[in-house]
């Protein structure tokens, strides 16, 4: 089940090659990534998915693919518009924005609720739920919920967790970051701090969080650069599948 800081991709706004941005986020504690890039041909998108899975697998992470086609994987995230009923993959999420859409959920495992705040990615999309609106929808949701939309600061992460979200899904905060690792570390630590009071043992000792541990992830470029929409030349020592 996705939790913590979940990254949504957008190679068109990313500051660097998508593989490097994702690798940086993973180094900062991210373990869940949602591949968007729906404008790409299926073959290119499938190759991109394979490269990002390789990056995530080194840290025990999971790639979720936006849309009903898992592109060789087993986790998808569906739009509110469909398909209904959802496919029978091991992990299926759905975007929701109101109680009517929540009531349509059937076998989905989780949902995103958005937009919590105004977002540069989808200007004018809303109206924003705000923390109070988010909490109301979380209480009405039959499945665990990720907060999405305009979440960029530790304070916003904390507020979403306190509203009942199991995690926050971010796009701009990671794609536009000058240092994705630093951005991921900052938001992941905020999440861990927010959930610590909720993860006390019966003896009252806090469980040690693991989502913020920073693995060793290669940060060299890969053959993904062309597919990620950037023309940056790759070092001759680059390994295919290494750092989205």
Question: How are the SSEs placed, and which strands pair?
Answer:
Elements: E1 4-8, H1 18-27, E2 32-35, H2 42-57, E3 62-66, E4 75-78, E5 91-96, H3 99-102, E6 110-113, H4 130-140, E7 145-148, H5 154-162, E8 167-170, H6 172-175, H7 180-195
Parallel strand pairs: 1-2, 1-8, 2-3, 3-4, 4-5, 5-6, 6-7, 7-8
Describe, in plain words, how this protein is organized in 3D.
There is one protein chain. With 244 residues, this protein is of the alpha/beta class. The chain has a single domain (4-178), classed as Alpha-Beta Barrel (TIM Barrel). 29% of the residues lie in helices and 15% in strands. It has helices spanning 18-27, 42-57, 99-102, 130-140, 154-162, 172-175, 180-195; strands spanning 4-8, 32-35, 62-66, 75-78, 91-96, 110-113, 145-148, 167-170. Strands 1-2-3-4-5-6-7-8 form an 8-stranded parallel barrel, surrounded by 5 helices. The protein starts with a strand and ends in a 49-residue tail after the last helix. The model is unreliable at 201-244 (pLDDT under 50).
Brief summary:
29% of the residues lie in helices and 15% in strands. The chain is of the alpha/beta class and 244 residues long.
Notable features of this structure?
244 residues, alpha/beta, TIM Barrel, eight-stranded parallel β-barrel
| Top CATH class | Alpha Beta
Q: Any idea what the CATH architecture is?
A: Alpha-Beta Barrel
The biggest sheet, with number of strands, parallel, antiparallel or mixed sense and barrel status, is: 8 strands, parallel, barrel
Quickly count the helices.
7
Tally of strands: 8
Distance between the termini: 21 Å
């Amino acid at each position: 089940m996705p939790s913590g800081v979940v990254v949504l991709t957008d190679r068109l706004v990313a500051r660097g090659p998508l593989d490097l941005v994702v690798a940086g986020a993973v180094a900062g504690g991210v373990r869940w990534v949602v591949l968007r890039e729906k404008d790409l041909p299926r073959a290119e998108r499938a190759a991109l998915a394979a490269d990002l899975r390789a990056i995530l697998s080194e840290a025990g992470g999971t790639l979720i693919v936006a849309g009903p086609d898992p592109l060789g994987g087993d986790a998808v995230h569906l739009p509110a518009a469909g398909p209904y009923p959802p496919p029978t993959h091991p992990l299926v999420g759905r975007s929701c924005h109101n109680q009517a859409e929540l009531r349509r959920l059937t076998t989905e495992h989780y949902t995103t609720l958005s937009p919590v705040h105004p977002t540069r990615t989808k200007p004018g999309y809303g109206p924003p739920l705000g923390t109070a609106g988010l909490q109301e929808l979380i209480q009405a949701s039959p499945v665990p919920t990720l907060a999405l939309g305009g979440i960029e600061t530790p304070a916003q992460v904390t507020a979403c967790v306190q509203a009942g979200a199991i995690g926050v899904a971010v796009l701009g905060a990671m794609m536009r970051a000058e240092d994705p690792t630093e951005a991921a570390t900052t938001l992941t630590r905020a999440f861990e701090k927010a959930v610590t009071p909720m993860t006390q043992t019966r003896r009252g000792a806090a469980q040690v969080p693991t989502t913020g541990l920073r693995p060793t992830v290669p940060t060299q470029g890969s053959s993904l650069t062309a597919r990620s929409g950037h023309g940056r030349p790759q070092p001759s020592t680059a390994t295919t599948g290494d750092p989205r």
